[in-house]
């Protein structure tokens, strides 16, 4: 058109601007911007609105300049600006624009409500969300399905699933987005059973689930921790023809892998006609995380034979498999590939490499990689702290932690597990207690079972098994096998109090009646104090319960 000397009008420029936005080209956007300035369309509100949306993908400052240069704005431009602010994380600005629009005499529409609600959801500010909900009723926008869908999403993201479901139930004309939003909200709030009931309701309402709903349903089945639900959906997927969708098959194989059904996962994987990178990565990850490192490496080799290039997610899983097998050579070749591919600053791969080098005891190489990262995130710091911890370098782990704090990073619960573990293995009792109390008092992190287990281990290793038992009894959460196991290990290593060991064994048997190892420890403690009657009594108890198996020999041996 331009070559033929035809002058475009603003409608033409509007269409071209939208096309450039879909292409995602920053250079072309700037070229179109220059052309519309040359043609004098910089005051045409529809054109500026479209340009504003395109620029929001790269440069929010330009968006503000475009918005500020329009003296008289229509409702569409106001809504677009609210939406841009919400998408770019400028939530306060989104509310300011929303208020300013009303001060300017522009009455908000359903699109205005839909634009501002994501800001409430992102802030998890239930109070603001309720105000917008009330406002939508007042301005007669509430009964639009798109507004109700956004309210369902907002309440779910604010953690109020009950109200989210109430709003959903009142939607008269539910569309596919309504069902998707509700289903996703249930899963995000750890209510997989409710999500599965929603899928059942959806089908009974004559709505055919699409690919996204099926993916969420598979996720809910995995979250519910019952394979029967997943099997049911697998049958439905086959019947409905969704087995042709690679993402659906990938989600199914991940679900089977989560339940330890690696045979079924492998069969599904082998039946994919055109395996994409995500499917390859999912299968490799499933094997690596599921304790099948050889299968993971074999699948990786098959992937390479198809000339499919791995991404950082694939390589992290391969490194995990290398770590499980102790294959240093392959790990080093992946390191070389990472360097060659320009991933040297990748904050996903480099922490994985630090982990594997430290697990092989090569702390210097791990530290060298750590030092090369220009912008270290929390994962990088955590990997280095854990690397020192597993190698018994408690002082160094604490020093790295101090450096991390000096950069203004806030530790998470994983960092504290590594630190407490380092203190436990290195006998740094005072430092361990300081960190444990600082977790909640300074950083607002409530200790979990893993942190309590570290403290029990720390006390037990120092020979304070009675103090450790009192600590366990005072825990605000129910102790698990890890806690009692750490305490029993302390009794065994320091030949501690028999009374404490007896109590601990009683707790362990209550949690896991089939576990025989704790009887062996108690029997050996009896034998060391020449309490042969107790050894005999314990052997009779084991025989009576039918648990003798391998421990029968241990107890008999102790008695002899």
Automatic annotation (TrEMBL):
NCBIfam families listed in its UniProt record: PPR
| PROSITE patterns the record matches | PPR
> What are the protein's UniProt keywords?
Repeat
| SUPFAM superfamilies on file | TPR-like
Taxonomic lineage is:
Eukaryota, Viridiplantae, Streptophyta, Embryophyta, Tracheophyta
Where are the PPR-type repeats located?
A: 74-108, 175-209, 276-310, 377-411
- Judging by the UniProt lineage, the source's domain of life is Eukaryota
Which GO biological process categories is it annotated with? RNA modification
- Which GO molecular function annotations are given, in alphabetical order? mRNA binding
Record-given protein name = Pentatricopeptide repeat-containing protein
């Amino acid at each position: 058109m331009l070559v033929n000397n035809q002058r475009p009008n603003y409608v033409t420029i509007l269409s071209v601007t939208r096309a450039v936005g879909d292409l995602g080209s920053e250079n072309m956007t700037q070229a179109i911007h220059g052309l519309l300035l040359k043609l004098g369309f910089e005051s045409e509100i529809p054109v500026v609105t479209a340009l504003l949306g395109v620029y929001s993908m790269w440069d929010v400052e330009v968006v503000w300049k475009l918005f500020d240069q329009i003296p008289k704005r229509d409702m569409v431009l106001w809504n677009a600006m609210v939406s841009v602010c919400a998408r770019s994380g400028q939530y306060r600005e989104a509310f300011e624009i929303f208020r300013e629009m009303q001060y300017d005499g522009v009455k908000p529409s359903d699109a205005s409500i839909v634009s501002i609600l994501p800001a409430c959801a992102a802030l998890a500010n239930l109070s603001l969300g309720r105000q917008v909900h009330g406002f939508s009723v007042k301005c007669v926008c509430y009964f639009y399905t798109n507004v109700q869908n956004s309210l369902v999403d907002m309440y779910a993201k604010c953690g109020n699933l009950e109200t989210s479901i109430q709003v959903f139930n009142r939607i008269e004309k539910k569309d596919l987005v309504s069902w998707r939003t509700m289903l996703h909200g249930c899963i995000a709030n750890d209510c997989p059973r409710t999500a599965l009931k929603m899928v059942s309701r959806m089908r009974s309402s004559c709505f055919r689930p699409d690919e996204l709903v099926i993916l969420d349903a598979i996720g809910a089945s995995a979250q519910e921790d019952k394979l029967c639900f997943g099997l049911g959906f697998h049958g439905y997927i086959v019947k409905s023809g969704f087995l042709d969708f690679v993402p659906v098959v990938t989600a199914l194989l991940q679900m089977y892998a989560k339940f330890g059904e690696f045979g079924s996962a492998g069969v599904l994987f082998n039946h994919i006609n055109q395996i994409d990178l995500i499917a390859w990565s999912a299968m490799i990850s499933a094997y690596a995380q599921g304790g099948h490192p050889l299968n993971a490496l074999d699948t990786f080799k098959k992937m390479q034979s198809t000339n499919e290039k791995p991404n950082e997610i694939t390589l992290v899983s391969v490194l995990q498999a290398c770590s499980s097998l102790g294959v240093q050579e392959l790990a080093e070749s992946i390191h070389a590939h990472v360097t060659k591919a320009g991933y040297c600053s990748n904050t996903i791969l480099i922490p994985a490499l630090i982990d594997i080098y430290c697990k092989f005891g090569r702390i210097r190489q791990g530290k060298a990689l750590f030092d090369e990262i220009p912008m270290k995130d929390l994962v990088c710091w955590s990997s280095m702290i854990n690397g020192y911890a597993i190698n018994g370098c408690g002082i160094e782990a604490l020093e790295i932690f101090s450096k991390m704090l000096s950069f203004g990073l806030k530790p998470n619960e994983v960092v504290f597990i590594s630190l407490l573990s380092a203190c436990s293995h290195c006998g740094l009792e005072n430092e361990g207690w300081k960190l444990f109390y600082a977790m909640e008092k300074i950083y607002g992190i409530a200790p979990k079972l893993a942190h309590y287990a570290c403290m029990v281990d720390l006390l037990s290793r120092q020979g304070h098994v009675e103090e450790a038992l009192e600590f366990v009894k005072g825990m605000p959460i129910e102790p698990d096998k890890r806690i009692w196991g750490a305490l029993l290990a302390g009794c065994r290593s320091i030949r501690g109090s028999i009374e404490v060991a007896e109590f601990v064994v009683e707790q362990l048997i209550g949690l896991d009646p089939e576990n025989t190892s704790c009887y062996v420890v108690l029997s050996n403690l009896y034998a060391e104090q020449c309490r042969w009657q107790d050894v005999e009594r314990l052997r009779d108890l084991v025989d009576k319960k039918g648990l003798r198996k391998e421990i029968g020999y241990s107890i008999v041996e102790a008695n002899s």
